[in-house]
Design goal:
By secondary structure, this protein is of the alpha+beta class. It contains five helices and eight strands; from the N terminus they run E-E-H-H-H-E-E-E-H-E-H-E-E. 28% of the residues are buried.
Length: 162
Amino acid sequence: MIENKLFNEQVLLLPLTNNDSDRFYELYSHPQLTANFDESPFLLEETPEEFTRRIESVCEFIFTIRLKDDPSVIIGDCALHHWNKQSKEISIGGSLFPEYWGKGYMQAAFELLISLAKQELGIKTLLGQTQTRNTKAIRLVEKMGFVKWRVEDQETLLRKEL
């Protein structure tokens, strides 16, 4: 059975809820994150609650990332989405507020998601997709064993066999 919270020494992952809508919306509105988007993640006149529900509907698992030592503060999100049960593939992704970049929090969160994907879902292949200009994200997942699979225009697709 899938746990409703995951944690390690650094981070606590809790399922995204409507109570998190304002902070979740703030994350995807942050100018340093929107620099990596070609278009707005929001629909026209979409409220934080509507945005949260829409994103929840397309992710098999989506969590808020919180510091284990201060679980009241949401520092980012991470998700498993686009699960192909036949090929046993799933996509992984996430975002952090810039003040938490480079501190190992996303790697810690991804390690929890990878364990969930492998042990609970029987996933054999993880996929990641980001803007080619998002070199920090690419370096992070390459350090975790992902390899560049395809580069298409502005997008880099990476994969990791489990």
